[in-house]
Every structure is written in structure tokens, then in C-alpha cells.
């Protein structure tokens, strides 16, 4: 999961990044080669297929990240929202000031001309916009707000700094290409090379718990040999430091990635004692599952496992296999990680909900227009639409057949000619009255 970068003023409301257009090869015929070469030198061009593909991908990302958030109403009235898209305003709360987070709607309405840091999503957060942390700004959407939101949690992300190295993203001084991965416990973002282990391929794991959170939630090490996605290569020899063996010295330690790590039937029953969630990821299980009759964690802790100075990587549905006995639920509460037993808390669940909600709410503007017209107007509009679609398809097919790119001037020329042909057809029409 790659970290979305800082969003600046004037950005699109769907948070689509303004990726620079890449110059494409000009394959026009020799007759037009010279002219097109001059035009291509003046401005970068992209193929129609590239534009459509990029637009579709950006729209998909925007629906996933922002779909669960309201872009018109401040989320403050909802209290601490379970998960929402958040931003930090470096214009209103620069380094040295108290950190603050604002919801999607306030980022548009109250901070539209400010410099914002995109925080992706965070859990259990209440919008700060206009409270006492903002010295000279009142929220335009909900002016009456409490002075502070004491339950909110903040980190260096609110100042545009990430990872243990506390660097910005993107980092102009970092020439090493690296993926940023979010820890599902502290919700900070980390460079892959700063996690103590080389992360598995991004498609092999679903969630990551960073080194610091693994040290705080050390009980997860008992689950790691059976549930975590194995890593192959250490980042540095220093990653070996501080390895703690949690078994008696006389016992033989099993190799994590060896054949002995395969689950026996008894072990499978042990970690799968809780009700599993759906495998599709489009739905999630209830926050509190049926209480386990025996403590799964206690059984696992009696077996061999290692504590390392590294992050861990977890597959889909791993949360459903955590113990939910009374003692473990109290431990989660004491560590403030109760959300680990809630699969609706995952970013994937949030993105799936946002995507499905957006798809359900999306309406065809053509059908909306047709529904407001009488029968004659509907027929006329459909005919005009079909004419435009047919002529535009034929026009663009020429570019596809020649392997050339479509430029702004080409589209302008098409619509000018289309309007001209339409006027000629209208002028030749004869009207009769009875």
C-alpha cells in the first residue's frame, strides 16, 4: 500500500493527483511528421488509452480512500468516526503548534487555499477544524465545537513526517525508491527498508505491525509462527540483535520458515477456534465474537516462538484467529488495541465499503436528464447522443489505426466540425404546419 503524498491547495475534490503527462512517440505518417514533431516539442502528449486508464485508476483510488467520507458535511457531529479520510493543515497548525486533524469536508470548505498533509485514513478520530488549536479560523460548516477532542491520537504524520527516520513524503533528499507501508496499530507510515525485515511482496500480505508496536503488543509474537507471512531476507545484520527465545533452553526451536512450521490438525483447530470472517473482504465480522471457551493465546505461548526486533506482516482474515477469551479481551483493552478483533476496522473493509457505496450512489447523468423530459425531447436527445457517439468513435478510430496520439487541438477540431455539420443539417430541415 503506497503512501498518498501531501495534497496542496487548489487540488481536485476527488484528490486525484496531477501526474505530469509523459511524452509519447510520434508515429504519424511522413506527410504530417514535420508539423506534428513541432507540435509535440511544444507540449507533452499522451495516448487516449493512457488517459482513460489513468483516469479510471485515479477514480478507483479516490472512491476507495474517500468513498467512506462525506465531502459536504463535517464529520464532527458523528463523534469519533470509526475510520475516515483525514488531513492536517500546515498553514493553520505548523510545527511548534499543537497537532490537529480535519475531515474531508473541512479540507475543502475551510482550508481550500491552505497547504495540507494527506493522512490517508485514521480510526476513532473527531474533526478538530475550528477548535482551540486553530488560532484564527472558525469552522464554516460547524462553528460550535468543543475546545478540544481529548480522545484523538496524534503523531508526527500531522506535521508531514513519517517513519522512524521522521522524514517527509515524498522526500526530496531521498534518492532510494521505497514503498511506504502503514502500521495497522500506530497508523504511522514506514519505509520498507526501516522495518527490520524485507517486506514480502505487497500482494502476499494484508496488514503490517511495525517494530515498536510489536514490542508493545508482544503477545502477537506467539501468533506469528502460525499466522504471519514469512519474510525471507533481513534488511541488515543488526536485525538479528535482541532476538529473544521464549522457550526453555533444552527445547529445540523450530525454524519459522521450515517444514515444521506447517500447522498440524490440532494447531489449526487452535487458531481457528473463533468464527472466521468472509474471505471476499467485502464484508466483515462483528466487532466482538463469541468468547472462546479456552485461551488460544495461552496455548500458543506454551509452544516455541521467537521475539525479533522487526515488523511483522499478516494475511487477510488473520484478526479472526485472535483469542477473544475474557482475559485476552482485557489485555487488548489495557493495551488500547481492542480494534484488532474487529475486521470492520481494516483499511480494506473501509475501502470496500467506500467503493460499494459510491457505486450504489452513482447515477447516469444522461438518464437523469432524460427523466426530466417529455417523450419528443427524449427521442431528440437520444438521436443527438447517438450521432455524437458514432461520429466521435469513427474519428478516434483513425488515431487508433495509425497508432497516433490525440491532442487537445484534435478534439477541438472535431467538435467544431460536428457543430458545423449539425447546423447545416438543421438549416436544410423543412417545417410544416397543419
TrEMBL record:
<dbReference type="InterPro" id="IPR047506">
    <property type="entry name" value="UBR7-like_UBR-box"/>
</dbReference>
<feature type="region of interest" description="Disordered">
    <location>
        <begin position="252"/>
        <end position="285"/>
    </location>
</feature>
<dbReference type="InterPro" id="IPR013083">
    <property type="entry name" value="Znf_RING/FYVE/PHD"/>
</dbReference>
<feature type="compositionally biased region" description="Basic and acidic residues">
    <location>
        <begin position="27"/>
        <end position="42"/>
    </location>
</feature>
<dbReference type="InterPro" id="IPR040204">
    <property type="entry name" value="UBR7"/>
</dbReference>
<feature type="zinc finger region" description="UBR-type">
    <location>
        <begin position="72"/>
        <end position="144"/>
    </location>
</feature>
<feature type="region of interest" description="Disordered">
    <location>
        <begin position="1"/>
        <end position="47"/>
    </location>
</feature>
<dbReference type="InterPro" id="IPR003126">
    <property type="entry name" value="Znf_UBR"/>
</dbReference>
<feature type="domain" description="UBR-type">
    <location>
        <begin position="72"/>
        <end position="144"/>
    </location>
</feature>
<dbReference type="InterPro" id="IPR011011">
    <property type="entry name" value="Znf_FYVE_PHD"/>
</dbReference>
<keyword id="KW-0863">Zinc-finger</keyword>
<keyword id="KW-0479">Metal-binding</keyword>
<keyword id="KW-0862">Zinc</keyword>
<feature type="compositionally biased region" description="Polar residues">
    <location>
        <begin position="271"/>
        <end position="285"/>
    </location>
</feature>
<dbReference type="Pfam" id="PF02207">
    <property type="entry name" value="zf-UBR"/>
</dbReference>
<protein>
    <recommendedName>
        <fullName>UBR-type domain-containing protein</fullName>
    </recommendedName>
</protein>
<feature type="compositionally biased region" description="Basic and acidic residues">
    <location>
        <begin position="1"/>
        <end position="16"/>
    </location>
</feature>
